[in-house]
Amino acid sequence: MLHVAILTIGDELTGGRIQDTNTSFIARACGREGWKLAASMAVGDDEGAIKKALDYLLTLADAVVVTGGLGPTADDITTESIAKAFGLPLIANDEVLAYIKTIFVNYNLVWTDNNAKQAVFPAGAEIIPNPGGTAAGFALHVGGKVIAVIPGVPREAERMFPEGVVPLFKRAFPEAGLPVHTRTIKIFGVPEAKADELLADIDRKKEGVEIGFYPRFPEIHLVLSCRTESASDAKQKLGHVEAIIEGRLSEFIFAYDDETMEGTVAAGLTDRGLTIAVAESCTGGLICDRLTDVPGSSGFLERGFVTYSNAAKTELLGVPQETLEEHGAVSEPTARLMAEGARKNAGTDLGLSVTGIAGPTGGSAAKPVGTVFIALADKKGTSCRNYSFRWDRRRIKQISAQAALLMVRRYLRGGMESV
Amino acid sequence: MLHVAILTIGDELTGGRIQDTNTSFIARACGREGWKLAASMAVGDDEGAIKKALDYLLTLADAVVVTGGLGPTADDITTESIAKAFGLPLIANDEVLAYIKTIFVNYNLVWTDNNAKQAVFPAGAEIIPNPGGTAAGFALHVGGKVIAVIPGVPREAERMFPEGVVPLFKRAFPEAGLPVHTRTIKIFGVPEAKADELLADIDRKKEGVEIGFYPRFPEIHLVLSCRTESASDAKQKLGHVEAIIEGRLSEFIFAYDDETMEGTVAAGLTDRGLTIAVAESCTGGLICDRLTDVPGSSGFLERGFVTYSNAAKTELLGVPQETLEEHGAVSEPTARLMAEGARKNAGTDLGLSVTGIAGPTGGSAAKPVGTVFIALADKKGTSCRNYSFRWDRRRIKQISAQAALLMVRRYLRGGMESV
């Protein structure tokens, strides 16, 4: 299997001023090719650090992708540092120089001689064209290994890596390994350790499938992966393990692969031609924010009410003052009436409501911070669930919004009995 | 000067499935302490790779921060790998075990034996407490150098690094350099290159103050830093540069240091005893979500309306159907009437509204995707501003919410004339 390492170069990265996105992008692209990322490293614009890092990465990997430091200014020293590290002279490339000069003419830029620096490469380098800028990349073959150097500008790197570097690695390493096939199962409502335990007996070796756990609060993503030449073989193996997991975690599964919770809820509402109104107290608009992240949400989200005050609950949703006084704003009767009022006043098929105590204050012995009631109403009736979350304010909002969306998802699959 | 290296561990990072934010966060925190980041590296959950990486990083740095792989599942192997790398036996820590069990009891979680793994550490390790989770960190002192290990969960790492690791490094390296004093100025509404140009002539050397630009969409944070033993000297120098920046960028500045946009708006409303109602169309609840992230928001946020449909705009906010037909839902007249209707129907001092086209569809030649109207009403009148944002759906929502909150902030400082 091909082992790849990534070296990003730039003081702006090591100083934390700019968040590197190239590493994650290149790592994903390598994953799709079935290549293993051996290491990634960021160093400053420093000749010694660049040499040391390359020496080390070449002990770990067959191929190293270097990004950054190919600009025309004095602090861009990647090309000379790499040439020096391997004892290679720098040689001007006339073809690249002519191309750069064309760009200057076409874009009406004023030529200054420092730009000629971008047409100089270590002897023996293979040029990697840059269709989107003046900084061409290059590759060196050193002792059976390959170093590919591309600019740090994400827009340029994201084009040059698949178009220039990937084919180059495939030519250099014909044995570059089997492709990897993956299937992601997204779960919510079960702790990671518990899910892990429920799947512990699945024999990864025998099944030919790896299972990875990737927590993304408040969700956990299970990534099944399988290495094989045959797509149908992968489908069969992944499908087998997926079926086992579905048998054990079905109540917690809410989406697959690139689907999101709000996306599946949106798709379900759209498919069934249902509309919804949302009444939010402690989530403060977060449920509507998530639903409106889905393009086309105006087709199903009629309106939302952020009923933070009691007056708003009464005036907009018709929750009687007596209910609020007798049971409190955070109570099952209030949650039910909020959902019913949202549905009725908006004239929608469904009404969803959340009322709770996000903290840090406002809790009591009977209703501590984290007490949340979530209700869903349709024309036939209303269901309500009661939760006790133990997180900070922001996370109580996040997990409550997630639980509310899950309630709608369950309804869309199994009706009010499944909520 | 103290040289620090960062090692992030996890297949989810090297596989590109999760974007690492810890490296950038830790690099920034080191920068604030005046420490130099020697290198950062990511490796998978692989014993050999972890050992190799540590060996290499210890040749570059005095201190290594390791994040990730401290979970209870079988693929979390950081602790054992580090113990093995330095030939140390693993020893259970009863105090940590008791703490983890307390968390399980308090949060009503079901104990499974794999969780005991999180209470095992290499012999001689100093425990770094985790106030927010079950994964305690630890530090090892090896040959005059220090390795500090904390969880990869950003929420936990972001608390444990300043509270646990920074003091530990300072104890281990008393020579860690002069203290660095910083002042952060948060700006919005001006491109980074333009802000940089406006501040280019400030002589950093002469002033004894560095100026760093940290873009965090849709904000830019300017971090002024000054190295000196004397707090009063730092205050004087930082104050001098801050005054220059305020003279040039005042209209774009919305917060300092740890303040947030929603926090300053909340504080302003609370101080003045003003209440607000928010009517959101294209932001879909995001403004209310941000305002309700501030504890005590029930004191000023009376209610919010997510008026996605025209019917909702008419019924909840009193926008006449004729206005919607004549000018459209995305128009200045509609935005003004939304703000006025929100204020009137909620009985609040202020009404804030946003209506726009978040895309990807719904745009036209006259009103392309990114057209947004924001209005603010008080008892005397209404102001409206018109924006053309060029981003994707999520970013149009984010920048619109930010612009709306900035409008409230300007009002709180200078009245309706400043909006």
Topology, element by element:
Two copies of one chain form a homodimer.
Chain A: E1 3-9, H1 11-14, H2 22-33, E2 36-43, H3 47-60, E3 63-67, H4 78-85, E4 90-92, H5 94-106, E5 120-122, E6 126-128, E7 137-142, E8 145-150, H6 154-172, E9 180-188, H7 192-198, H8 204-207, E10 210-216, E11 219-227, H9 231-249, E12 253-256, H10 261-272, E13 276-280, H11 286-291, E14 301-306, H12 310-317, H13 321-327, H14 332-346, E15 350-356, E16 371-377, E17 382-388, H15 393-414
Parallel strand pairs in A: 1-2, 1-3, 3-8, 13-14, 13-15
Antiparallel strand pairs in A: 4-5, 6-7, 7-8, 9-11, 9-12, 10-11, 15-16, 16-17
Descriptive report:
- The structure is a homodimer of 419-residue chains.
- Chain A is elongated and about 85 Å long.
- The mean pLDDT of chain A is 92.
- Chain A has 3 domains: 3-172, MoaB/Mog-like domain (Molybdenum Cofactor Biosythetic Enzyme, Chain A, 3-Layer(aba) Sandwich), CATH 3.40.980.10; 193-256, no CATH class; 261-418, Maf protein.
- Chain A is built from 15 helices and 17 strands.
- The first copy, chain A, is α/β, with parallel strands linked by helices and 419 residues long.
- In chain A, strand 6 (126-128) and strand 7 form a beta hairpin.
- In chain A, helix 2 (22-33) runs parallel beside helix 6 (154-172), helix 3 crosses helix 4 and helix 10 runs parallel beside helix 15.
- Chain A has a 6-stranded mixed beta sheet with strand order 2-1-3-8-7-6, sandwiched between helices.
- The interface between A and B is large, with 90 and 91 residues.
